[in-house]
Design goal:
Helices cover 84% and strands 0% of the residues. It has 51 residues and is an all-alpha fold. The longest helix has 28 residues, at 23-50.
Length: 51
């Protein structure tokens, strides 16, 4: 799965699992949010380095 597809998948999963019905879903939502935040920070930093 390429990066864009993975990001779309995480966003869909967050939307589908919000609000979480189980502890497992709550953990998944938190993991997906952390991964997206990390991507946003890295993407923003690399974008700034190019400008």
């Amino acid at each position: 799965m390429n990066l864009d597809a993975r990001i779309d998948h995480y966003r869909r999963e967050i939307a589908d699992l919000t609000p979480p019905a189980t502890f497992r879903e709550e953990v998944l939502v938190n993991v997906y949010r952390c991964l997206l935040q990390r991507y946003d920070k890295e993407h923003h930093a690399s974008h700034q380095a190019l400008t």
